[in-house]
Amino acid sequence: MKYPLTIAAIALAALMSPAEAAALREGGDPLDSARWSEMQKTFLAGAPVVFDPRVKVIAPSTAENPMQVPVTVDASALPGVVEAVVFADFNPIVQVLRFFPESAPAFLGFRVKLQQSTPVRAAVRTADGVWHVGGTWVNTVGGGCTAPSAAGGSKEWQQRLNEVSGRQWSEGPNAGRLRMRIVHPMDTGLVAGTPAFFLEEINFADTAGKRLMRVQTYEPVSENPVFTLQRTSADGPVEATGRDNNGNAFKARIDQ
Amino acid sequence: MKRMLCALLMLVAGQLGAVDFDYRLSARPLAENVYAFIGKTEDFTTDNGGNIVNTAFIVAAQGVIVIDTGPSLRYGQQMRRAIAAVTAKPIALVINTHHHPDHFLGNQAFADVPIAALAETRNGIAADGNAFAENLYRMSGDWMKGTEVQLPGKTLSAGVVEVAGRSLRLVALDGHTGADLVIVDATSGVVFAGDLVFNGRAPTTPHADIAHWLKALDQLDVLTRESGFKLLVPGHGAPTTDAAPIRQTRAWLTWLSAALRDAAKAGLDMNDVLARPLPAEFASLPVAASEYRRSVGHLFPAAEQEALGVKP
After folding, report:
1. pTM of this prediction?
2. CA-CA-CA-CA torsion sign (B255, B260, B265, B269)
3. Distance (Å, whole) CA B309 – CA B38
4. Which among A111, A165, A174 has the least Cβ separation from residue B267?
5. Which residue from B296, B308, B311 is facing A179, i.e. has the nearest CB?
6. B269: nearest CB among A60, A65, A72
7. Phi, psi of B241 (to 5 degrees)
8. Which of B59, B67, B56, B65 is CA-nearest to residue B27?
9. CB contact under 8 A, A163 and B311
10. For the stretch A168-207, what's the b/e string if a residue is b when 16 or more beta carbons lie within 10 angstroms of its beta carbon?
């Protein structure tokens, strides 16, 4: 089936190689999900949308552990990225996170809780207002969002809440990479007797105060979140700040 | 239309070909009065019904000692019939080597006789048994019909025990799970290693502590050097007269833990690690790719915490 390209897509196609342009599609969901139109209405209402192979969403096709499904969004091949929203069509809480790359490339690795097999997608908005969508199906046995966090079974997290550890790599094949882990139960509120308790905002900035990336996180992000960022150059320490939905703030320095 | 017909035919053929739910268990003699049922070196499927595990029995003077009961009620029942075809002696004792479902979900077929395991194995079955069974229903389908968790009622501890007139040495190790029982039958020289040893199949790691597992393999190695040693029965894969499967299991675990640690140190994230090809040495091992993928999920977070300097 063929779909007509919108004006936005035609304009884009003019800037791309023929192969890339041919891969751009508008209208037909390449993941063939029954919930796509609803997703489009919820997250991308009224704006032009193209399915774009330059938005790479990497995740295992079969997730061993539905509580910790690794997802990497890489839209660094797409110029002018302003915002990325990550969602999973069939999750009880659909929205996973949003990130706003400022001086860092549009690249973010993290882990999510999935309740059942679902597309995991990233919609990436460029400065011209067009949403570029990429995604992949993840099959899982489920239970990720309604299973209690490990923290629910112990009191240790209370002493370590918002404890940050992390590192940057300045050499080797992963030069420019930053990885950070935060102790947080990331409770979804879907487990009886445990209210929603999750990190809401994380900012990464260099020591001069220049922001690399802002991340808004939601309930489906996995317990004790681990984030992977890519800097254009590993230039000095990074300061990570943020807070959860109960107002608990954190601030940490990530050295090389 | 043609395509639909074709699909319909395939569906019917699949149904027909599929299943009489007969595991076709036949007792393989390992030594005098010692037998095993050797499973396939595959993952759980609706074709194999979970017959991917080795179970065994010893015909002792006053009765039969059963070692592990397989993945389902049907397996347990068919195993019991296959044992009865070999000996008319009653079952004296059933032993579960550890708390993984392919080793104890046949217990129901032995509900009328004593079933025993190490204390931590009993706790593990009580805590995780139902979740394990649910998962096997998903993977093996109708082969699991009627299967429910039957807890071992007796606790075993390490040392020499006398069962039905036979002397068994129970060696309590851990590493594959929190409690892994090795059974040495001195009379025959057969060592039942449980899932501490895999032969010709990549090891599984959902409850593994690799450092402990490697130590347990060293102890198993010692058992195979004892003068009376004749045969090593792994939890999965063919029995051997030497310690080769111990070396194979050790090589996989050593490589796996080093690879994950090095990857974390180099800044890789979980998807990067999953995308790495297996070394040639392991690539052709049955189920290597899927077990590697599962093991990354189980073991990489700990390697990552170490690399990121998480306080213990």
Report:
1. 0.88
2. positive
3. 44
4. A174
5. B308
6. A72
7. -90, 0
8. B56
9. yes
10. bbeeeebebbbbbbbbbbbbbebeeeeeebbbeebbbbbe
- Under the phi-then-psi rule, with left for phi > 0, alpha for psi from -120 to 50, and beta for the rest, what region is B141? left
Is residue A50 classed exposed, middle or buried when 0-12, 13-18 and 19+ CB atoms within 10 A define those classes? buried
Report how far residue B53's alpha carbon sits from residue B32's, in angstroms, rounded to the nearest whole number.
Answer: 22
> Which residue bears the tokens 């997250």?
A43
Strand order in the sheet with B190-198: B159-163, B166-173, B180-185, B190-198, B231-236
Encoded tokens for B286: 């049955």
pLDDT of residue B205 exceeding 70: yes
Q: Considering only CA atoms, give the Rg of chain A.
A: 18
Q: Taking CB atoms and an 8 Å cutoff, what residues of chain B touch A172? A: 266-267
Mutate which: B269, B272, B287, B305, vs A, most A CBs within 10 A: B269
For residues B246-256, one letter each, b for 16 or more C-beta atoms within 10 angstroms of the residue's C-beta and e for the rest, the string is: bebbbebbeeb
CA dihedral A36, A38, A40, A45 (to 10 degrees): 170
Of A65, A165, A179, the CB nearest to B267: A179
* Nearest-angstrom CA–CA distance, B312 and B139: 36
Backbone angles phi, psi at B121, to 5 degrees: -65, -40
Q: How long a stretch of residues is chain B?
A: 312
| pLDDT tens digits, one per residue of B10-44 | 444 444 445 699 999 999 999 999 999 999 999 88
- How many angstroms separate the CA atoms of A242 and A248, rounded? 8
Distance CA A221, CA A204 (A): 18
ipTM: 0.87
Tell me the DSSP string of A81-103: EEEEEEEETTSSS-EEEEEEESS
Q: Hey, are the CB atoms on A165 and B298 less than 8 Å from each other?
A: no
The CA distance from B250 to B303, in Å, is 19
What's residue A68's pLDDT?
93
Contacts of A60 in chain B (CB under 8 A): 271, 274, 293
Rounded to a whole number of angstroms, the distance from the CA of A48 to the nearest CA of chain B is 30
pLDDT score for B113: 98
Q: Which two tokens stand for residue B54?
A: 């080795």
DSSP string, B290-302: HHHHHHHHHHHHH
